[in-house]
């Protein structure tokens, strides 16, 4: 199996020194070896890191209460609001609302 270090090494041998942004692009997003391109789920207690959402629903519940308060305070006629969860792992935060 090809490792991210192999892809980075190949790029350096082919092109010479690479900018840090390219290094991170290869390490994280290379279709063959990138950390975030793996099919394996790496978030949670059994993964590589834990987020506030992966520990339970409390964080989402607290956010929901805060958003509800803000939305009640901003009751202006014709005011529409929408809350979007961007960059979500598997939608657990939005599901908590």
What this model shows, in words?
With 97 residues, this protein is an all-alpha fold. The chain contains four helices and no strands. Helix 1 packs antiparallel against helix 2. The radius of gyration is 20 Å and the shape is elongated.
Total strand segments: 0
Q: Which value, in Å, is the CA radius of gyration? A: 20 Å
If you average the pLDDT, what whole number results?
A: 82
How helix-rich are the residues, as a percent range?
Answer: 40-55%
- Low-pLDDT ranges: none
How would you describe the shape? elongated
**Distance linking N and C termini:** 41 Å
What is the N-to-C order of secondary-structure elements (H for helix, E for strand)?
HHHH
What about the largest sheet?
none
Strand fraction: under 5%
Q: Helix tally?
A: 4
Structural class: mainly alpha
What structural keywords apply?
97 residues; mainly alpha; 44% helix; 0% strand
Helix/strand layout:
Elements: H1 4-15, H2 20-29, H3 58-73, H4 92-96
Helix pairs in contact: 1-2
Give a quick precis of the structure.
The chain has 97 residues and is mostly helical.
């Amino acid at each position: 199996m090809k490792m991210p270090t192999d892809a980075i090494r190949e790029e350096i041998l082919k092109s010479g020194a690479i900018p840090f942004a390219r290094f991170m692009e290869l390490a994280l997003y290379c279709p063959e070896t990138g950390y975030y391109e793996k099919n394996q789920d790496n978030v949670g207690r059994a993964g590589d890191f834990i987020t506030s959402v992966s520990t339970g629903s409390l964080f989402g519940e607290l956010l929901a209460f805060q958003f509800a308060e803000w939305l009640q305070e901003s009751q202006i006629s014709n005011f529409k609001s929408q809350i979007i969860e961007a960059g979500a792992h598997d939608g657990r935060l939005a599901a908590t609302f």
